[in-house]
Each structure stands twice: as C-alpha cells, then as structure tokens.
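Anyone able to model this chain together with zinc ion?
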Amino acid sequence: MKALRFYGHRDMRLEDVPVPEPGSDEARLRISYASICQTDVERWWHRPSIGGRVTEPKTVGHESAGIVESVGTNVMGLVEGDRVMVNNIRHCGDCYWCIRGAQSNCRNSFNSGFSLDGGLAEFMVWPESHLIVLPESIPDIQAPLIEPLSVAVHAVRRSGLRSGDTAAVIGCGTVGLLTLQVLRASGASVIAGDLREQSLDLAAKLGADHAVNTGDEDAVEQVLDLTDGVGADVVVETAGAVVTPRVAINWTRPGGRTTLVGIHSSSASFDFNEIVGTEKTVIGSVAAEPGDMEKGIEMVADGRVRLSDLVSEAISLDRVMKDGFERMLRPEKDVYRIMVSPNM
Ligand SMILES: [Zn+2]
Ligand SMILES: [Zn+2]
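re: yes, here you go
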C-alpha cells in the first residue's frame, strides 16, 4: 500500500509498504480521509523534534477516519464496514498522571502519525479501544476535523469557562474557529481576534459575536469597549505566534483566565508583572484527554459545531506533498484543512 513516511528533517517519502496486519485487539481501517495539520508541516520542515520518541520512519497523519476492513480476534464491538474516527492519542494508563485522571499529562503516551504509524496511507491499524464509531450525520470528508475539535474541547474544558462568560479566541485558524464554536456552545459570548480579515469574516459566520483585528493599534481598547471596560473573562490563544500570548493576556480581565494552546516555534520575552499585578491565571492546554473527542462528535452531531467551512480541498494521496505539504508551507497559504484520500 501507499503511505507517506516521515524519515527526518525535510525528508518525507510517499512509498510502498506492506499492508499492516491488525493485532488481536486492533482493527484495520481503509482510510477514507486524513487531513494535514500545521504541526505535521512544522515537524517536517521546521522542527524535527516535534513528536517526542520517534523511531523513523513512521507514517504521518494524526487526523484520520476510515472504514473497518478487518478485526483482530479479541475485537467484539466493531464489525467490517463500521465508519470510525481514530482517537489518536493512547495514554499509558498507569503513570502518576493517568491514575489521577490527568491523562493529557501522561509522559508515556503514543500518538498516531508521530510515535506510531498514522493515517496518511491506504490502511492503518489501531486498537478497538481508541476507535469511535461515527454517526451518520458526519460525512467522511469532515471526520478528520474531529481531531482538532478534540483539542478545542480540551482547551475550553481547561479554561474553566462558565456559561454567561465573555470569552475571546486569538487566532482564527482551524483550532481557533473550532474553539470559537465550542465556547459559543458552552454558553459564552465570543470575541474573535486575528490579523486576517478573511478569517474574521469566517469567525463571524461561525457565530462570533464580535471580531477584532489583532493588528489594530487600538485592539485592546476595542476589547475593553466590548466588555464594559473590564476585559474578557476567558481568552484562548491558538495562534502560536511570538506576540499572541501577550495579546491573549492583555485581552483577559484582571482576575480572569488565559489558556494557551498554540505551539511556539520561537520564544518571546515577557514582563511577568503583567500577570502578577493583575492576578490573571495562565493555563497551558495540549492535545486532548479521554472523553474530549466523544464530546466533540456529540457537538457536531447535534449541530452545535459546524465543520464544513473548514474543509478547504480534497486531494489524492499521490498529490499529498505537492498540493498538501508544500502548499501549507507557503506563508500566504489560504487553507484550513486539506483532506487527503487514498481512494481518489
Ligand atoms: Zn493536529
Ligand atoms: Zn500515563
């Protein structure tokens, strides 16, 4: 079968590998769609260290959905033909954090597409325990977006948001626009912040109550005007740019909470008195924990979260480098998610 394999820094190859055999607790999926995440692009081109314990080469892709094609002998809950979403992170279950219910801090977790073979291939194998049957209402082509949605659900959970809060989301890329929708669904009014007017327009379409261009000189004043002069109760930063954590903290009201989700490729200097003097709480949030993906699926199924606008294009696996990775590398990239199908 064809699989996109990560060999190391700036070395990715579409090659022929044997079709994987499912272990006794696993199912083999025929991938319907897998999408390309900015993290995959970052790791390939900029930061080969992303991904932790990797023994190259590994098949790329952590946002994948497929159809069950065969199952191992111990698999009881899945049958051939089931449409499933890959719950991409497998926690160890017995470290300090796992036994305390804080699985997103597990130090021994495995992620598809990084430390284990992922979904940018014709087939992949994955344990039954981490495959979620998709409701009819979620089309194959949108399903991979459930992974970034689980990241958004996790961030909102971490943020401590209460219904009725005023929230802001900084960065209206894929994770930002999903976070915005989860915040709205959780009872917040939401201010969207981004530099790109086009992204702010989409944010408004997806339910943002207000949009503020983070490049405006008076952006902070605009946020104060929208919040009776106090700032947002909760701000979620998803952009990962050098300046955006500071923007997020500035938009947070004294005593409020800033959640940082974006992954940073360079480090910024920061005056911590801005946190000390205002008693703001700054929270980190990474990936997802058990239950976040299921919650995301529920929100899409009942219409509270809409994925269709975030599907930018569908391409075949043969075009994954040229029209996928290389396109996403360009600074002027105009895409949210590119869906890759091995069956096109
Ligand atoms: Zn991702
Ligand atoms: Zn663990």
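Residues 37, 39, 62-63, 147-148 surround zinc ion (ligand 1) (CB under 6 Å).
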